[in-house]
Design a protein that fits this description.
It contains six helices and 18 strands. By secondary structure, the protein is α+β, with helices and mostly antiparallel strands. It has three domains: 78 residues, Uridine Diphospho-n-acetylenolpyruvylglucosamine Reductase, domain 2; 124 residues, Uridine Diphospho-n-acetylenolpyruvylglucosamine Reductase, domain 3; 82 residues, UDP-N-acetylenolpyruvoylglucosamine reductase, C-terminal domain (Uridine Diphospho-n-acetylenolpyruvylglucosamine Reductase, domain 1), CATH 3.90.78.10. The strands form six sheets. It has a five-stranded antiparallel β-sheet, with helices on both faces.
Length: 303
């Protein structure tokens, strides 16, 4: 679908969220690049999201985002609708069964702190994931040896028609940075099962993980997290560093001097600069080591 979508195509009567037109995605991605979304919607809550999807013409593409990490939006922007979950789907609570209910828009770092405050251990690794729960579920995000789906018991998802369904973790095929789902089903929430334990030790672990992240990753620069998946029995950062590419630039995009698996926006990068640099890294690693690096970041939109 190449024709632009406008907000006039939506029935606003029952909508309580924030509906915008021609919204620059550079304001909603951690790389701070990307063209405009035709229509941009921030739902007020889950029920409002259901009404929004039900009110949409069926031929309009939908794309969900959270904090905008792990995402490269091209300079031509996104045709269709972008739904941002971060503000409207932000509930988190301890259930009667002592499980953690987390909605898709909750930042992963918040999950780590919340679990610690409420007497749970095992979620400390979330402190090292720069995105939100929805994205972490969609790609089985991980950090410091932990992975999202290792603590997930069940999830709810919403489809293109606004229908909400529940699933057990065992219903999914989970892999390294991958989860097999239908392209028009999106995660709304999850229930996590965690153990009780030494809270002081857990708090100390979260602090040390955040300190390690700050010392080893370019957290002060605009980036999208790790760009490439680690090849089996190796690390993408090691290969990139060994290739001599650390610090290489195309336009305003640069391979981080601090961590070779990060690309930073030095202040004036375009999405095309970043995409070209990703392609250049892949080519060099293939030529030097005969390894096909796979991107961890999702690339969307039009050139």
């Amino acid at each position: 679908m190449n024709s632009r979508v406008t907000s006039q195509q939506f029935n606003r009567e029952y909508l309580r969220g924030d509906l915008r037109e021609q919204e620059p995605m550079s304001a909603h991605t951690t790389w701070r690049v990307g063209g405009a979304a035709d229509v941009f919607y921030v739902p007020a809550d889950k029920d409002d999201l259901v009404n929004f999807l039900r009110s949409m013409p069926t031929d309009i593409p939908v794309f969900f985002i959270g904090l905008g990490s792990n995402l490269l939006v091209r300079d031509g922007g996104i045709r269709g609708v972008v739904v941002k979950c971060h503000k409207g789907l932000s509930s988190m609570q301890v259930t009667e069964d002592r499980e953690i209910y987390v909605e898709a828009g909750v930042a992963c770092a918040q999950i780590a702190r919340f679990c610690n405050r409420n007497g749970f251990v095992g979620a400390e690794f979330f402190a090292g994931i720069p995105g939100s729960m929805g994205g972490a579920l969609a790609m089985n995000a991980g950090a410091f040896g932990g992975e999202t789906w290792s603590v997930v018991k069940s999830v709810t998802m919403i489809d293109r028609d606004g229908t909400v369904s529940s699933f057990q973790a065992t219903d999914f095929e989970i892999g390294y940075r991958s989860v097999a789902t239908s392209p028009e089903h999106w995660f709304l929430s999850a229930k996590l099962t965690l153990d009780s334990g030494d809270l002081d030790e857990s708090k100390s672990k979260v602090s040390s993980l955040l300190k390690a992240r700050g010392s080893s990753q370019p957290v002060q620069s605009a980036n999208a997290g790790s760009v490439f998946k680690n090849p089996e029995s190796d690390h993408a950062a090691r290969l990139i560093e060994q290739s001599g590419l650390k610090g290489a630039k195309i336009g305003g995009a640069q391979i981080s001097e601090k961590h070779a698996n990060f690309i930073v926006n030095t202040g004036h990068a375009t999405a095309d600069d970043i995409e070209q640099l990703i392609a250049f890294i892949k080519l060099e690693i293939k030529q030097q080591f005969d390894v096909n690096l796979q991107t961890e970041v999702r690339v969307v939109g039009e050139h």
